[in-house]
């Protein structure tokens, strides 16, 4: 699905509200404070997951009217699947924990919300500052594929080639990162509904800002009332391990994490912004033209 983006203003991107209404309210407050309209806000999916208020979170996002793509949780809930489709290996701690929160989410979602989820696009594409972008949930061809900062560059390049755009904006893995790969960028703004396993209770979101030189990518912390979200989850009783994670900032399981991300457990994140300049494309196009002349 192709969308139009305001060429002048920043684009706000976030993933994984995860049924965390407090965090979802907080990210809209950020958009309002920055005067970013709903048409320049994109969610990378998984509105519903671990936390206590799935239907309320869906309704809040719908009322906001921002762009949303279909994550694996939307796919599963819309299709009344027996599990979340997150890509957890059978028998792992993540898989076992999902047997608590997913039935709760499934039983607290209305038919109208399922119909809305079913109609969500699997991807979005747009152009900003002359750069083409594709928004996906996990991977280009696999919704629940985990792509982390430490995922080998050749794997990311293969996904970028399959996507056919200068920029991939993705979610799913739960930990933000920005990677300049060849002549492309992989941008994961993180999630708002769970911490990034860095020992802080903050969520994360991303900004893409046009500049005179091109585009600037950054990720920002989202402070919010994590204590209230944790208390609501404890009251629901569906996922006590995730209720603790909301306060501690540490995931209850590291099953899905590569070794580099496991070793970073409990270390507060700091991610430098990335400038993606126009002259980088010009240099790349000159190089390609020169190669074509030499081979011609």
Question: What distinguishing features does this structure have?
Answer:
single chain, 296 residues, alpha/beta, 6-stranded mixed sheet, 11 strands
Summarize the model shown:
By secondary structure, this protein is of the alpha/beta class. It is 36% helix and 18% strand.
Task: Give an overview of the whole structure.
With about 300 residues, this protein is an alpha/beta fold. It has one domain: 4-Layer Sandwich (Purple Acid Phosphatase, chain A, domain 2), CATH 3.60.21. Helix content is about 35%, strand content about 20%. The strands form two sheets. Strands 3-2-1-9-10-11 form a six-stranded mixed β-sheet. The two termini are about 35 Å apart. Residues about 280-295 have low confidence and may be disordered.
The 3D shape can be described as globular
Spans where pLDDT lies below 50 across 5 or more residues: 282-296
Find the structural class using helix and strand composition.
Answer: alpha/beta
Count of beta strands: 11
- The arrangement of helices and strands along the chain is EHEHEHHHEEHEEEEEHHHEH
Please give the order of strands in the largest beta sheet. 3-2-1-9-10-11
- CATH topology-level fold name: Purple Acid Phosphatase, chain A, domain 2
Question: Taking Cα atoms only, what radius of gyration do you get, to the nearest Å?
Answer: 19 Å
CATH architecture term: 4-Layer Sandwich
Span between termini = 37 Å
Mean pLDDT across every amino acid position: 92
| Strand residue percentage | 15-25%
- CATH class type: Alpha Beta
The CATH superfamily is: Metallo-dependent phosphatases
Biggest β-sheet, characterized?
Answer: 6 strands, mixed
Number of helices: 10
Give the helix proportion (percent range). Answer: 25-40%
Count of all domains: 1
């Amino acid at each position: 699905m192709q969308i139009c983006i305001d060429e002048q203003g920043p684009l706000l991107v976030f993933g994984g509200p995860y049924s965390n209404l407090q965090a979802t309210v907080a990210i809209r407050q950020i958009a309002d404070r920055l005067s970013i309209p709903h048409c320049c806000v994109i969610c990378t999916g998984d509105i519903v997951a671990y936390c206590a208020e799935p239907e309320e979170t869906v309704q809040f996002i719908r009322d906001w009217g921002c762009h949303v793509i279909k994550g694996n949780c939307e796919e599963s809930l819309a299709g009344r699947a027996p599990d979340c489709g997150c890509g957890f290996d059978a028998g792992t701690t993540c898989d076992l924990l999902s047997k608590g929160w997913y039935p709760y989410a499934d039983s607290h979602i209305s038919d109208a919300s399922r119909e809305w989820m079913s109609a969500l696009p699997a991807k979005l594409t747009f152009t900003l500052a002359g750069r083409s972008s594709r928004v996906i949930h996990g991977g280009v061809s696999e919704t629940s594929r985990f792509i982390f900062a430490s995922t080998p560059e050749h794997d990311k390049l293969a996904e970028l080639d399959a996507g056919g755009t200068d920029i991939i904006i993705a979610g799913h893995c739960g930990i933000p990162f920005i990677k300049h790969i060849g002549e492309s960028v992989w941008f994961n703004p993180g999630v708002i509904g769970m911490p990034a396993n860095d020992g802080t209770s903050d969520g994360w979101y991303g900004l893409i800002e046009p500049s005179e030189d091109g585009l600037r990518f950054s990720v920002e912390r989202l402070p919010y009332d994590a204590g209230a979200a944790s208390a609501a989850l404890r009251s629901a009783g569906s996922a006590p391990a995730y209720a603790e994670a909301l306060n501690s900032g540490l995931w209850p399981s590291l099953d899905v994490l590569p070794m580099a991300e496991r070793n970073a457990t409990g270390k507060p994140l700091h991610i430098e912004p990335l400038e993606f300049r126009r002259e980088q494309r010009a240099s790349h196009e000159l190089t390609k033209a020169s190669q074509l002349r030499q081979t011609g």
